Amino acid sequence: MNLWQQYIRPSSVTEALQALTSAPGPACPLAGGTDLMLDLQQGRHAPVHTLVDLTSIPEMTVIEVRADELFIGAAAPLSRIAASTLAGQHAQALVEACSLIAGPQVRSVATLGGNVAHALPAADGTIALLALDAQAEVADLHDRRRVPLADLFVGPGESALNAGRELLVGFYIPLCAAYQASAFKRIMRAQGIALPILNLVVWLERRAGRIANIRIAVGPGGPVPFRASATEKALNGKPLTAEAVSAALDVLLQEARFRTSPQRASAEYRKHIVGGLFKDTLETAWTRAVSDR
Questions:
Q1: What is the pTM of this model?
Q2: Domain 58-174 annotated CATH 3.30.465.10
Q3: CATH code of the domain made up of 6-53
Q4: Which of 24, 150, 164, 243 is 20 to 30 A off residue 158, Cα-Cα?
Q5: Does residue 1 register a pLDDT over 70?
């Protein structure tokens, strides 16, 4: 049985959108395909008539600085992001996340856009982008728009993108300035290929011995990728003391909606281990953001 009837490899975003919207049957974009191919083979994805391969579209695979932002194409392989000097300089948490997803063979073909488009609450790349204040560029046949990353998610595994009509082109991340840094850490089972039990990302700015600004994302902290805004407020303007971290952890435990995953961990276990992960990630980002004192 054929898993698809037609395969198209466009060289531009416009060509890709034309192929998706004019296909005689259900059409699906293809980048890494590490999840899509398995889902088709195992019957977890609706039948597809046309696959539209995005990997030959230059602007969707580029990693470059544009004005005061880092742009990463949605079809850039995770392995190339993990090895990118630019990404390491301006989005270290994302580099750390991409270097831990699955194994080397999967990372060589899997893409950041695929990680985001699946809309899983604990997807490592997605959680990193959320804390880095990334915006997504979304295109249809009529125009392009930039949207905050959080606006792409509706529910577990449910994206706000109009399937077959819109494409994720790439992601814009603010450049990392002096006294700013990020860190990604996670806890997972030993096999190394499943979603993490828990992951956490901190981006912060350190000034005069205090946290001048901070962003925190946790996965899975709710039905969609979760930004811990109340915890951020609890730490803003504070020095990184044991008391401040403890008080912020109490807030995090109240605002995060940890859930039980039958194959990974219970909600109670996640609540038990998040404290150490939170403290470790905070301290790593703090140390990287060299103080101006």
A1: 0.95
A2: yes
A3: 3.30.43
A4: 24
A5: no
